[in-house]
Structure formats: structure tokens, C-alpha cells
């Protein structure tokens, strides 16, 4: 048995690979087989993370295992889907038992946290790269799309923003901070928690949704464009964590919250009539603005002045050679 | 808009990305949405091809586009699935418009040949690598698994074997041959045709099936192990193409047919009582042996002598630095 065959057996033995709800056939045949209940649709998303582009060449493989799955799973949450499973395409330059064991441990933790079964994949030799394809199910007609927001809707987010962008200098070892500040930021970067409970609570309530991966303003631009309207963000309402403010200061923390990427927090539009019923669901969220006729995304200060910065999507970090 | 955003728009405009049967929502949102009819299951498979491992760094991108999808789609055929769609995770070192146009053209040709819609994916910067995840549907209980063969079943294959392995020295430019020999071999390598018609004809008839990617003997070993029995291959019955015999000679052609990889031809076991009804379906296939009590795979010469070689799975070519 070759070393890559051994790796496949190794992943196949992980707790998250032992099947689960919706998995009719898991790892080991030409295909996996999934059950999708009548009246539901299968939601599918694929994400690739490349070493040196999406994560540092040198990093803790356990944390990488957690993050690589969470980033992909967040797209399921953003559709309001119930998690089923995922495939892992792992390309490795060499086989290190210690690296694999830690990576698989992190992957398995996040998989079980999300309720996702590992159902298949491929393991190949080459420069380190990870492609996840994630699967969920959502009642037909209730998936949360980017199109569908209406003028008058409230603009909301599922939690504090900017933590991952703020964590980047810590991740890259460019800066240090006391543990009280660095720990929550690094936790958000390495182990984002896909907002499945929020996404499912939004079914039948939200008119549009996505997960923030390019930065709040850029991603709001995607909803605005897909829905054919304008979105207005009230700067004072954008939630920022105490750790981010403590680490970066108020101004830079706000900038990170508006333009930083990799947050994997949901942004959505909600008709005002749904506000009380969503609050009653108990899942936390923040109203940060509104949808109105027009186009594009604007930012308002507490006095209502337009202070929209030049919008730029988040660029993944890229190591200099 | 960044160059990789442009690439995404480029693929989204391809004919194969305009939706199709079973695709409720295609490219452009956080997830794609697939419809799986009641009583059917979703079949899923993921394959990664890495430059320098699974294909030469320098090759025709149109041919690569065809091959990269066909290799993955073959797993759907091997389950007896009806094709629905695929996601493409493409990692590129740089953006070349000519390369992308040709790659997308080849991909689109194969997608339409197979009846597969491009439903999503990811495009990232990094060393050239392609991960495809393919989706199909198959009636519950009728998927063709590796387990299920019974003693007394006939062992069959869907066509001539060894062509792709025979083509390898031509692909790598190590040898040349007259066009009459090289053209069919190269066509088989660069544009294998997933055997969907055969796979679907085998539903309810075959007891086990897979597609030959590691070589006939190694893949028969997978069926034998999963089914808990032995398989016997009659060397004289193994189909070999005239082009392969002409290029390699009879002995080396037989060796390629037995141990060469990348054929993407189906191998399956069939109860003798199903033989006439499968023949009546009109899809060509060849009976090459039988299943019997025991374990492992043995090879017999026309006199019935055991001439089993030392079995080795196919190793993907790896360029020397």
C-alpha cells in the first residue's frame, strides 16, 4: 500500500467519516451517495485554500484543519442549509505523520462541531493545497439567496466584524499582543464558527443573505447588485469586538470591520415585520443599516453624513518570496 | 474587478454553466442548489489532478480541459448514475487568456458531451492544480457498488484496455508513432469518454462495478476484496486495441491492458442469467473472466494455467525535476 493510500485509510478511520444523517454511502466506493429528503434541495459549495496565499506555509496543522473546513461550511450557513457532509481534496508535498494527525484532528473537531460527515475526496502529491466541497439540504424555496432584498428591509449582521483581518498580523507573526487581546482574535481567525443556527432561523424571514468573506462593504455590494437596490450602513451600529478595539484602536478596528475579509459572519436583509420574530428565536444579530431604492453601498456617520470610503474587496494575504 | 474575478465571470458565461436538468441554482450565489428526484440518491465524487503528477506541465489546455472533467465523470458512470453537474476548483500560477480560453473550451466540450452542468467552484492563485467534484443521481438501491459480486458471476469490461498507458510515452514526447497508431491512443488519453450508457444499462443487472483507473488487475482486486471472493481473468479475452498492439507489440500491449492505469473503462460482474438482456441493450462489453469463491485476482492463459504476475497498481507518472 502506497503512502497516499495509507493517508486515505487514515482519514476514512476518522470519527467524522463514519457516516451520519443523509449519508447513504460514505468513503470507499467510486462515489458517495447522499439522501436528500423530498421537498428539499441539495446545497453545494467548493472552496480552495492554497499555502502561501490563503494561509501561511508554516502554521499549526490542527488549526488549519479547523479553519479549512469552517471557511467552506460557512457558505452552507449563508444559504440557510442544514449540514450533511463534505469531500476533502488534499494535495501534500510530502507525508508527515505528525502533520496529518494534527490536521485530521482539527478537521474532525470542526466537522463534528458543524455536523458534517467526511464522505470522500482525493489525496495527491504536490504543493500544499486544500479544496473542500460541502453539502447541505434546504427546503425548496427557502434557500437564502443574494437577490431578494427589498427597499425598506433592515440590513443586519450576525456578529462582530473585522476580527479575522485584525488577527492577520498576529497570524503572520508580524505583531504580538497580550493574550487577552490576541487569543480571541486568533480564535476567530483559526476557528470561525459557521452560523448555521442563524442561517436556519432566517429561512422564510430574511430576503437576502451571504457570509462576509470579502469584507462588509464589498459583500453588501454583492447583495445590492444582485437585488437591484442600495444598502446604507450606519457606522455607529457596526459591531466591533473589545479585543479588536484594544489591539488596533477604535479607528483601525472600524476600518477592519468595514473592509476586512474572512469574517464568515452572515449579513442579511430582513423586512421590519420579521424583526420581533427573529429576535424571539434567540439567535443574536445586529441591525446595522437598511435597504433603499438606488444602487451601491453607502456608509453614514451618526449625523447621517455620507462617509463612504473608496470600496475595495479584501485581498488574501500573499507572502512575499 | 480582479483578474481572478474576471476568470469566474468567464467560466460562468460558458455554455455548460447555463444550467440544466437538476440544477435549481447555478453559479453566482454562496451555494448551488440541486434537485434530486424522490426515490433517487445523489452520487458525489472528487478528483484532483496536479501538474507534473497527473499531467505534463506543458500540454494542450483544450485537451487538459476535456481530460480533467472526463476522469472525474467516469466515477459517476461507474455508479450507474445519470449526470447532473460539477464544480471546478482551478488553481493557476498566472492568468493567461489564451490558456483559459482553450481550457474552458475543452471543459465545455466534455461537459456537454457528458450532460454535466458547471454549477460552481473556486479560482485561486498557486501551482497549477485542478479539483473536480461531480454530481449525478441514481435510483435508491440501484447504485453499482464494488461489493456485491457473487461466485459464478461473469467478469466483464466495457472496452479495450491499456490505451492510456500505451499513450503515455507519446504524451510525454518520449516516443513518436505514425498518426494511424498515435491518434487513437492520444485520443483515449486526452479525451476518455465516461461510459454512462453502459453504467446505466447495468442498473439492476450488474452485481458490482467500478471504473478502471489503477489498472485492470489492481481494480479487479478492489472488487474481489470488497465482495469477499476471487476473480479470474482469462488473458486471451482481455480486449486490446489494434493501435496499441501496433505501437507496443502484442506482449507489451497485453501488459499495458492488465496493469496500465487511466483507462476509465468500466469493469463489472454480471450473473450469467443477465447476459442476454445486457447484450440486448446494445451497449458493447466483453466477458473476460469469472468470480469464484476465494480471494484475490488470478490470470489464466488459454490453457487455463495460472500466469498471475506480481500485482502492482498503476503509479501516476511523475516528471523528473
Task: Describe how the helices and strands are arranged.
The structure is a homodimer of 321-residue chains.
Chain A: H1 3-12, E1 23-25, E2 32-34, E3 40-50, H2 61-78, E4 82-92, H3 97-114, E5 117-125, E6 129-139, E7 154-157, H4 163-171, H5 179-190, H6 196-201, E8 208-211, H7 216-227, E9 230-234, H8 242-248, H9 250-259, E10 266-270, H10 275-280, E11 286-292, E12 296-300
Parallel strand pairs in A: 4-5, 9-12
Antiparallel strand pairs in A: 1-2, 3-6, 4-6, 7-10, 7-11, 8-10, 9-11
Binding site for Mg(2+) 4 (chains A, B): 30, 45, 75
Binding site for Mg(2+) 5 (chains A, B): 214
Binding site for ATP (chains A, B): 121-122, 146, 213
Descriptive terms for the model:
EC 2.7.4.16 (chains A, B); 2 domains; homodimer; Phosphoribosyl-aminoimidazole Synthetase, Chain A, domain 2; thiamine biosynthesis (chains A, B); ATP-binding (chains A, B); 321 residues; alpha+beta; 6-stranded mixed β-sheet
Bin the helical content of chain A: 25-40%
Fourth-level CATH superfamily of the largest domain in chain A: PurM-like C-terminal domain
Number of domains of chain A: 2
The beta-strand count of chain A equals: 12
The CATH class of the largest domain in chain A, by name, is: Alpha Beta
Our measurement of the CA-to-CA distance between the termini of chain A, rounded to an integer number of angstroms, reads 37 Å
Quickly give the structural class of chain A: alpha+beta
Strand order of the largest sheet of chain A: 8-10-7-11-9-12
Report the uncertain regions of chain A.
311-321
Write down the secondary-structure element order of chain A.
HEEEHEHEEEHHHEHEHHEHEE
**In DSSP terms, counting alpha (H) and pi (I) runs of 4 or more, how many helices of chain A?**
10
Amino acid at each position: 500500500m502506497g503512502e497516499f493510500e495509507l493517508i486515505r485509510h487514515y482519514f476514512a478511520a476518522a470519527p467524522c467519516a463514519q457516516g451520519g444523517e443523509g449519508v447513504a454511502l460514505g468513503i470507499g466506493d467510486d462515489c458517495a451517495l447522499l439522501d436528500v429528503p423530498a421537498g428539499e434541495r441539495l446545497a453545494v459549495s467548493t472552496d480552495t485554500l492554497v499555502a502561501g496565499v490563503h494561509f501561511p506555509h508554516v502554521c499549526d496543522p490542527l488549526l488549519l484543519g479547523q479553519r479549512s473546513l469552517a471557511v467552506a461550511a460557512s457558505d452552507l450557513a449563508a444559504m440557510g442549509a442544514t449540514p450533511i457532509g463534505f469531500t476533502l481534496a488534499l494535495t501534500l508535498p510530502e507525508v508527515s505523520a505528525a502533520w496529518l494527525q494534527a490536521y485530521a484532528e482539527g478537521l474532525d473537531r470542526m466537522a463534528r462541531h458543524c455536523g458534517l460527515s467526511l464522505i470522500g475526496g482525493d489525496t495527491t502529491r504536490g504543493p500544499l493545497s486544500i479544496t473542500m466541497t460541502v453539502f447541505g439540504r434546504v427546503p425548496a424555496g427557502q434557500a437564502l439567496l443574494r437577490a431578494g432584498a427589498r427597499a425598506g428591509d433592515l440590513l443586519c449582521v450576525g456578529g462582530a466584524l473585522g476580527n479575522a483581518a485584525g488577527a492577520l498580523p498576529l497570524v503572520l507573526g508580524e505583531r504580538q499582543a497580550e493574550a487577552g487581546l490576541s487569543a480571541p482574535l486568533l480564535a476567530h481567525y483559526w476557528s470561525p464558527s459557521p452560523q448555521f443556527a442563524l442561517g436556519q432561523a432566517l429561512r422564510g424571514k430574511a430576503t437576502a443573505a451571504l457570509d462576509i468573506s470579502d469584507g462588509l462593504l464589498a459583500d453588501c455590494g454583492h447583495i445590492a447588485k444582485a437585488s437591484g437596490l442600495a444598502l446604507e450602513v450606519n457606522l455607529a451600529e457596526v459591531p466591533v469586538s473589545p479585543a479588536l478595539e484594544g489591539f488596533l484602536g477604535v479607528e483601525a478596528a472600524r476600518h477592519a470591520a468595514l473592509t476586512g475579509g474572512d469574517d464568515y459572519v452572515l449579513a442579511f436583509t430582513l423586512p421590519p415585520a420579521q424583526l420581533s420574530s427573529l429576535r424571539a428565536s434567540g439567535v443574536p444579530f445586529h441591525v446595522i443599516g437598511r435597504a433603499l431604492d438606488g444602487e451601491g453601498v453607502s456608509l453614514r456617520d451618526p449625523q447621517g453624513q455620507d462617509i463612504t470610503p473608496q470600496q475595495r474587496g479584501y485581498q488574501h494575504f500573499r507572502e512575499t518570496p
